[in-house]
Amino acid sequence: MRLKGKIALVTAAGQGIGQAAAMAMAAEGATVLATDVNADLLKSYHGVANVQTAVLDVLDKDAIAKQVASMARLDVIFNCAGFVHNGTIEQAQDEEWNFAFNLNVRSQFWMIQAAIPKMVAQFEQDGRGGSIINMASVCSSVKGLPNRFIYGTSKAAVIGLTKSVAADYVRQGIRCNCICPGTVDTPSLQDRINSYADPVQARKDFINRQPMGRLAQAHEIAPIVTFLASDESIFATGNAYMVDGGMTI
Ligand code: NAD
């Protein structure tokens, strides 16, 4: 029970990595608020111990602020929401860029900005601040991947955002780290595979870019989130953690 007594908020927890991380943190004793824009997906938590749910669109700044303000305390945030656009810089559209930066980066800025005063106050009261975990990707400033211009640029911004927050609050009990998964077999990856002319070949291509010769499962990404949420990682801040099946060897 590494997270007993901690209150955690997870965005985009309806499926995929967010769901796996919410479940893993609840299993470790955290009280988890699993949020998602899609209310139907949150029904999967019905009857799961230690999990409450709330509809939250992370593109809505006011909704984020209200959600955070409504919580008695907040020890852990996992900012998981994000979207992948395919294409090169020549193919990139302004609307796609704006959407990606709003969802992948600005939502984290809003969430963290709303939560910091609460976490700093907690630290001043009882010495327990907070741990913020942001979803980046190995496709970022870590590694350039073909046809991921907007996505890779936005996830590089997540790493910069993470380090900036870590630097500013390192003495106020707030840790801020990000994680950089390789390719994970989630519903949205399957959607993307299905959008190719030859989905069978597309899946093979995704697998081939993974040195281990397979995709990750979402539950294989969750443990790094649990670790960063827990006090086991108490001396770790400002880092980007690869969980990429060897893509950066
Ligand atoms: P997913 O894309 O399958 O699920 C995304 C979830 O986000 C859905 O439940 C959806 O309803 C929710 N969502 C969408 N818009 C939202 C909004 N405005 N507000 C709140 N929730 C919203 O999940 P995934 O593939 O596990 O991806 C999650 C994160 O992990 C993303 O940031 C993604 O970039 C990142 N990531 C994924 C992979 C991968 O290969 N799957 C690899 C590296 C990083």
Please give a structural write-up.
With 249 residues, the protein is of the alpha/beta class. The protein contains 8 helices and 7 strands; from the N terminus they run βαβαβαβαβαβαααβ. The chain is 44% helix and 15% strand. β5 (130-135), α5 (149-169) and β6 (174-181) form a beta-alpha-beta unit. The longest helix has 33 residues, at 94-126. The model has no long low-confidence stretch (mean pLDDT 98). Residues 11-12, 14-18, 36-38, 41, 56-59, 80-82, 84, 103, 135, 137, 181, 183-184, 186-189, 218 line the site of nicotinamide-adenine-dinucleotide.
Write the layout of secondary structure elements.
Elements: E1 7-10, H1 16-27, E2 31-36, H2 39-42, E3 51-55, H3 61-69, E4 76-79, H4 94-126, E5 130-135, H5 149-169, E6 174-181, H6 187-194, H7 199-208, H8 218-229, E7 240-243
Parallel strand pairs: 1-2, 1-4, 2-3, 4-5, 5-6, 6-7
The structure holds nicotinamide-adenine-dinucleotide.
Nicotinamide-adenine-dinucleotide (NAD) is lined by residues 11-12, 14-18, 36-38, 41, 56-59, 80-82, 84, 103, 135, 137, 181, 183-184, 186-189, 218.
